[in-house]
Amino acid sequence: MLPGLIDDDPEFDKVWVPLRKDMRIVRLSYLPWSELIQPGAGVPTLVAHLNRQIEAHAPTGPILIAGYSFGGCLGYLCAVALQAAGRPAARLAVLDAPANTKVYVLPASKRLRYRIRAIRKFHFRRGLASVIAKIATRPALSALLRRAAPFRNAELPFGMREFLDTKLTMQMELRLFRPWWAEIQPPPEPFLTPTFIYRSADCDSFEDEDMGWGVLCRDCTVVRVPGDHGSMLHEGKNMFLLESLTKAMIGPL
């Protein structure tokens, strides 16, 4: 299981509790910003890090990969690398992550709703950390940020370390991933892993039903789920998602 941009998200972990009665679930972890900022680090570095975890937790038997949002795209890349290494994943589930890099604008009503939600949940230290991280991860400041990397775990005034660490990692992930993904091409060998695309109401603005995944995945099934990008995971709305995901992942291989 690959989470979204926020690696250590206890609320996200709670979503998967009901699935543990049917499957052994391992949540993979991403690299911190202090490693992503190093020379030569990039998306392939992150994928190799994830696949080392997969091999460690599942040295034998079938591999089932599920990823939400940012984690859905990384899950696909992990599955491609596993196939190239001769051990293809048995299933891939991509939760609300478009492969199509075209920019789509949400309707004004949804944009307003999200802004109101963001204002209601505003947290000063988290917001300040976000601003600092966006500035600090600019390419022009890479050398300075590399100098700061050894002090990643140092305590900061007002308890800012935890917030800043999370936001720096998120911004580094995005800065590395976005331009790299925009240039992605289908692998030389057809991607054969059965892939399930779970699409929320937020993706209604995408013209392609499969959100671009049909170009990359030969065996692709699209499943529409209730809720928006965030609420599709919430208790009370996620029952259909969990039931469908369970059937997809533990069906006959």
Outline the secondary-structure elements.
Layout: H1 10-15, H2 33-36, H3 43-57, E1 64-68, H4 70-84, E2 91-95, H5 108-120, H6 124-136, H7 142-148, H8 160-182, E3 195-199, E4 220-224, H9 239-250
Parallel strand pairs: 1-2, 2-3, 3-4
Question: Key terms for this structure?
Answer:
globular, alpha/beta, 2 domains, Rossmann fold, single chain, 253 residues, 43% helix, 9 helices, four-stranded parallel β-sheet
- The CATH topology of the largest domain corresponds to Rossmann fold
Structural class category: alpha/beta
Strand/helix succession: HHHEHEHHHHEEH
Average residue pLDDT? 88
Percentage of β-strand residues: 5-15%
Read across the widest sheet, the strand sequence of neighbours is: 1-2-3-4
Give the biggest beta sheet. 4 strands, parallel
What would you give as the CATH superfamily of the largest domain? Answer: Alpha/Beta hydrolase fold, catalytic domain
CATH architecture of the largest domain: 3-Layer(aba) Sandwich
Describe this structure in words.
The protein is an alpha/beta fold. It folds into two domains: 10-106 and 182-250, Rossmann fold (3-Layer(aba) Sandwich); 108-179, no CATH class. Helices cover 43% and strands 8% of the residues. The protein contains nine helices and four strands. It has helices spanning 10-15, 33-36, 43-57, 70-84, 108-120, 124-136, 142-148, 160-182, 239-250; strands at 64-68, 91-95, 195-199, 220-224. It has a four-stranded parallel beta sheet, with helices on both faces. Helix 4 (70-84) links the parallel strand 1 (64-68) and strand 2. It starts with 9 loop residues before the first helix and ends with a helix. The model has no long low-confidence stretch (mean pLDDT 88).
